[in-house]
Automatic annotation (TrEMBL):
Name recorded for this polypeptide: Integral membrane protein
Annotated TM spans: 121-141, 186-205, 249-270, 282-303, 324-341, 361-380, 392-414, 434-458, 501-524, 551-568
Database matches in SUPFAM superfamilies: alpha/beta-Hydrolases (SSF53474)
Keyword presence, Transmembrane: yes
Sorted UniProt keywords: Membrane, Transmembrane, Transmembrane helix
Signal peptide stretch: none
Protein origin, superkingdom: Bacteria
InterPro entries: AB_hydrolase_fold (IPR029058)
Region (Disordered): 1-20, 762-785
Keyword Cell inner membrane applies: no
Length: 785
């Protein structure tokens, strides 16, 4: 393997005699090098156990035998699946799901040129939304540990007797023990949310060192004169080390300050009563003032600046990264000492002020989403894109779903713990009423979603019936098979559901915003749970409110159980971890720009890997390279091509199949994969061909405007390859959908055309006229490029 590594990237100019390379990049879910290279004997030539490039064993020294590869390329496979579904700690990433979703929303802004301040405002609003999610998660932990356990249950004799492990905290059971005072109970319970904050900090720091600290290639920035120049071609795009470190410090400080307020605020409220101790009252005001100043500092750090992409920014704000969390930790320690001070007359009664805290967070999140929608609309209006999802409002819609997901997770944890602690349902006041109101809006939201799904199902069935004639027309002269025709037509119709996802997301987000606003108003105006607030009204209203409350509590409990079960199974079972890895493949492609506790961006490792491999090969051989990407691998291939030097980019051919580049990324991320960006990629690489099927729910055409469209997109591939039984296919051929593109003869044909176009010397001249360029194919036919 050592010899293979030495030869793979530094083969020298002797390889200019014609050796070509085909670099295969797999898609979501991952695969093995054996499957990609169709050979049980493979060897790793560069990389490590996380991500590496493999060859067949017989091709390990291909550079030294160029005469053996004159008519065929050297196949290599880049395997990156362990970046998202490796060891068992990936199961912990489920806890970070809301953070991942809000980070995705950051990259969904509409395309705009020359509106730098508006673009920066868009990023700022999402960083603030991400900060509220951190505060929400830590506040939920405080609600469970401080309010439900330490304040309510430990302060109630009946509850403490049911949970003997709380005996030393109970004033009645411990006979006034040292830990039984409310302030000391809160100080001890604060270890839980503080440990959660520390865990988030540790996970972010560990992944930051593994992902964001990967060194990209040094190169000069491309000219910014062309407004179509893709942002993904900037040298520092995949190197967000500085921003993530700064945001990590701010979010860690925010979490610690949230815990400090949860301990100090009840004590300060007790000290402010008439006749309270003046020194403690003064100390409480001073401590809360310092916490408010810390909150302002955290907000200032988050608002300070966004990403630096034009150059590779290797600087690090070391003083800020260290001092801000340490200052917040110092305030937490002071809050623990202040809250634990002896107050003989202090008793715990009712709830802590969680309703105000959760209500304030929900209000801020709603206002941020509305402001984000206004900014996104202004950006979209300045440069309309008819293909952009939800008319440019995809980011605000997804941000709303991230906030809702955070609220559901917080409410689910609080309600399940309350039910567990209070077996009879009578001894505790339970969680804040706002969390119950939020759970109560889940049933009507599910009704809206189910109605939309039913409408989509009916539309799909109608479309499937309409597709039957088209299926039979694609196979003229063959005996009809009604059952097979229906299956093919249904596969085509169901593949179109992907294109209707923006409508589903838009309606769900709008309903979530309206129902969430109603829950907030109801909780703050009545101060009671929905069932109690509806008493005295019409019977149908009271019944609906009580049903929504009970059903919402059951649903949120079921969701919490499924969440814990799934996480536990993913921790122990590698196959389940790979299933979750598919979600991370899509959700963690983007750098952490809005939330530092989101799962790490695997592309900050994968894209530099591919860029280095492509650059070293083109330098060594003069350039005969086809990078072949399936599904998400095509997105990585495009991103890596953008990162090459312009001269190397012109020596690379791109073959994509089952690609979501336009269908998903172009619509949902128009600023980075919109028509202008994809058109520039087509112009800058030597040649680009794209394969897709009408039965594929993920891949689709690139849809470049004008003559460039047919030059990139081949006509839809037949699926299945044969309709009926033939001499070559005596058994029915399967409907492949998103898989096995390499089994189609069109794949080998297009790969051959790309390799025939590329030459060891300078790249073939590009056609710049009105018609698509015609290049000779390996079989003597002509191909467009």
């Amino acid at each position: 393997m050592k010899k293979a590594q030495e030869r793979s990237g530094t083969g020298g100019r002797d390889a200019r005699s014609g050796t070509a390379l085909e670099l295969l990049v797999h898609g979501v879910g991952g695969t093995t090098p054996t499957e990609m290279l169709d050979d049980p004997r493979t060897v790793r030539i560069t990389g490590d156990h996380v991500a590496a490039v493999f060859r067949r064993t017989e091709d390990a020294d291909a550079e030294s035998r160029p005469e053996d590869y004159r008519g065929r390329p050297v196949p290599e496979a880049y395997v990156w699946c362990n970046l998202t579904s490796g060891n068992g700690t990936r199961a912990l990433w489920l806890l970070l799901l809301p953070f991942m979703v809000v980070n995705i929303a950051h990259w969904m802004r509409p395309a705009a040129h020359g509106r730098i301040r508006t673009v920066r405002l868009y990023g700022l609003l999402l960083r603030l939304a991400g900060l509220t999610l951190t505060v929400l998660l830590v506040a939920a932990a405080c609600e469970v540990a401080l309010d439900l356990v330490a304040w309510q249950c430990a302060g109630t004799r009946a509850c403490a007797e049911r949970h003997s492990w709380l005996g030393f905290l109970s004033p009645a059971l411990s006979e006034g023990g040292w830990w039984s005072t409310p302030g000391r109970r809160l100080a001890l319970a604060a270890a839980v949310p503080a440990a959660l904050t520390g865990l988030l900090w540790y996970l972010s720091l560990r992944t930051w060192r593994a992902y964001e600290s990967q060194q990209p290639m040094d190169r000069e920035a491309d000219s910014e004169d062309d407004p179509r120049r893709a942002a993904l071609s900037r040298p520092g795009f995949w190197y967000g080390r500085r921003l993530v470190a700064r945001l990590r410090a701010a979010h860690t400080a925010a979490g610690l300050l949230t815990v400090a307020v949860g301990v100090a605020a009840p004590a300060a409220r007790f000290d402010r009563r008439p006749g309270g101790p003046a020194p403690l009252d003064t100390l409480g005001w001073a401590l809360l003032g310092a916490m408010a100043a810390g909150a302002v500092a955290v907000a200032a750090v988050v608002c300070r600046r966004g990403r630096s992409e034009r150059l590779i920014d290797r600087t690090l704000d070391e003083h800020l990264v260290r001092r801000l969390p340490l200052a917040a930790l110092l305030l937490l320690v002071l809050a623990l000492l202040y809250g634990g001070w002896s107050r003989p007359d202090w008793t715990s009664d009712g709830r802590l002020s969680g309703n105000t805290a959760f209500g304030g967070i929900a209000l801020v999140q709603g206002l941020l989403v509305v402001a984000l929608a206004v900014v996104a609309h202004l950006l979209h209006r300045s440069r309309p894109d008819v293909r952009a999802a939800i008319r440019g409002l995809g980011g605000p819609a997804v941000a709303m779903l991230a906030c809702a997901l955070g609220g559901v997770m917080s409410g689910g944890i609080a309600q399940r713990v309350a039910d567990w602690m209070d077996g009879t349902g009578t001894s505790l006041d339970g969680p804040p009423v706002l969390l119950t109101w939020q759970a109560s809006v889940i049933p009507p939201l599910l009704v809206v979603v189910l109605l939309m799904c039913a409408a989509l199902a009916l539309h799909t069935l109608r479309l499937a019936r309409a597709e039957r004639d088209a299926v039979e027309g694609d196979h003229p002269g063959e005996a009809g098979d009604p059952g097979r025709t229906r299956r093919i037509a249904l596969a085509r119709a169901m593949a179109t559901l992907t294109d209707r996802a923006p409508l589903l997301v838009a309606i769900t987000s709008a309903a979530t915003l309206l129902l969430g606003a109603g829950a907030l108003v109801g909780a703050l105006t009545t101060g009671e749970v929905p069932g109690e607030a509806a008493r005295g009204t019409y019977a149908v209203v009271q019944g609906a409110a009580q049903t929504a409350q009970d059903l919402g509590s059951w649903l949120i409990g079921l969701g919490f159980i499924l969440f814990v079960t799934w996480g536990r199974r993913a921790y122990k079972d590698a196959s389940a971890r790979r299933t979750i890895g598919v979600l991370w493949d899509v959700g963690t492609f983007w750098p952490r720009a809005a939330h530092p506790f989101a799962p790490p961006c695997y592309a900050e490792r994968a894209v530099p890997d591919l860029t280095w491999r492509m650059a070293t090969w083109t330098r060594a051989t003069g350039g005969r390279l086809v990078i072949s990407g399936h599904s998400q691998g095509s997105v990585l291939a495009a991103a890596a091509s953008w990162q090459l030097e312009p001269s190397a980019r012109r020596r690379v051919a791109l073959l994509t199949y089952g690609s979501p580049l336009e269908r998903l990324y172009g619509r949902w991320f128009p600023a980075h994969f919109g028509p202008d960006a994809l058109a520039s990629l087509h112009e800058e690489v030597d040649c680009w061909r794209n394969l897709y099927r009408r039965t594929d729910p993920i891949g689709g055409p690139v849809r470049l405007p004008g003559d460039a469209g047919p030059a990139v997109d081949r006509a839809p591939l037949k699926d299945p390859l044969t309709y009926g039984r033939t001499e070559l296919h005596p058994l029915p051929a399967p409907i492949l959908g998103h898989s096995d593109y390499q089994a189609d003869p069109a794949f080998a044909e297009e790969r051959g055309r790309l390799l025939a176009r590329l030459r060891p010397g300078l790249p073939a001249p590009r056609h710049t006229g009105g018609a698509a360029a015609t290049v000779p194919a390996a079989d003597g036919t002509a191909g467009d490029c």
